[in-house]
Amino acid sequence: MEVRRTASVKLIVSDEQRDAFAATREQFLWCANRAAEFCWNKYDYRKCRTNKRKVRDALYDKFRAETDLHANLVQAAIKRAVEAVKGCVERWKKRQRVSKPEFTSWFMDYDKRSSTVRRNEVSLSTLDGRVECDFVLPSSSPTPYERYVVSEEFEFRTSTLHYDAVTDEFSLHVSIRAYDSDDADGSADTEHQTVLGIDLGVNSLAVASTGTFWQGDDYDHWIREFEKRRSKLQQRGTQAAHNALLRLGKREEAWRKQYIHTKANEIVAEAIETDCDAIIFEELDGIRDRLPWAEWHHLWAFRRLFEYVEYKAAEYGIAVEQVKPDHTSQRCSKCGFTHKANRDAEQFCCLRCDYEVNADYNAAKNIGLRYARNEYHRLRSRQKSETGDAPVDVRLNRGTMTDDGPRPTAGD
Asked: Given CB 3.0 to 4.6 Å as the disulfide criterion, which of 113, 215, 236, 289 pairs with 241?
């Protein structure tokens, strides 16, 4: 089975290198946005261009002539745009609301030819030629970088350069790949997994199957405060107020990102503390329809939270997966009985077994349980032992639950 990992490592960047990255990033995003415009058709998804080779052939020479980017950075920008448009087309087919992809965040994609990753440094292509940056490696060893990037068992694939305006730090997210030969025989560690289910909601930003809640009250409070300040400035209508609005928007964006980063760190810490092998979210596609009362900033927070947890968990070898959310809020995580009347607002009470608990907590357990059941059957079909046992557990607040129901230690 193919095993992929992502290791994030901070970079030491000088002022000159910072300027080189900024100029390169500006042209990289220009190419990505131009490619997205070329691929997009706002009237008919069938007319969107999603063939990478054809789009590259149509745009490569033009972008090379109009920019100073390394050839592989041009191709990476085109590839990023095509993949984004392809994702929009898939959601469009499902009658979900979509819009043309627009790239504004701070990132650049590198491959083997435009970057060289070594043990303590990386060499990256910029408009000013190659830039070599040292890594900031923690004193504890082995680090995720040492376990994966410099390991002979893993093959370097790609890397993405990021800049965090809040911490004023550059980091390189290095993607590597390996093939686990033992897993093909059903003898790898994946024969037994423990997973952490995560439910996303409006009243609570996220709820884990362990019973840990990440409330969104403070998030909503500050969003409302930013909206009040923005409304007052808009009423003035002066140039000074306009400039203040721009500064306020940047502060709000930085605050929201830092807030979600903090919550993502806490979710990953919860998985580490409870010795989980995977963190399971509900699928985000269609979440607007499932939560029609959710504000735009909630939907933004959900997607960011998943993205941040995904790359942060990879540093610890924890997988992050999604499962279909169908009926997870209506199904009893204790007896399995499913009925829409089981849930009443924030409270869940099973009509069959009278199991009563917070509705989001019940949904989080069902999300983990659904993944466990799917993995159980997948692993069992490959199992060569006589028992065919391939357990996957859902981590609860007082024990574990298998796909067949609670163990005696669960105590629910």
From this structure: 236
Say which amino acid occupies 298.
H
Written as one letter, the residue type at 50 is: T
- Rounded Cα–Cα distance for residues 317 and 104 (Å): 29
Question: What's the DSSP call for residue 299?
Answer: H
Domain coordinates of the chain in residue numbers?
Answer: 2-179, 189-216+254-406
φ, ψ (nearest 5 deg) of residue 10: -80, 155
**Is the pLDDT at 156 greater than 90, yes or no?**
no
Cα angle: 224, vertex 229, 234; to 5 degrees: 120
Please state which CATH class domain 189-216+254-406 belongs to.
alpha beta
Looking at residue 141, its pLDDT comes to 55
Tell me the pTM.
0.51
- Which residues, listed in sequence order, are joined to residue 11 by a DSSP beta bridge? 135, 170
Structure tokens at 262: 């903090």
- Residue 298, judged by CB atoms within 10 A of its CB (0-12, 13-18, 19+), counts as buried
Residues 6+ apart with CB under 8 A from 359: 329, 343, 344, 345, 346, 347, 348
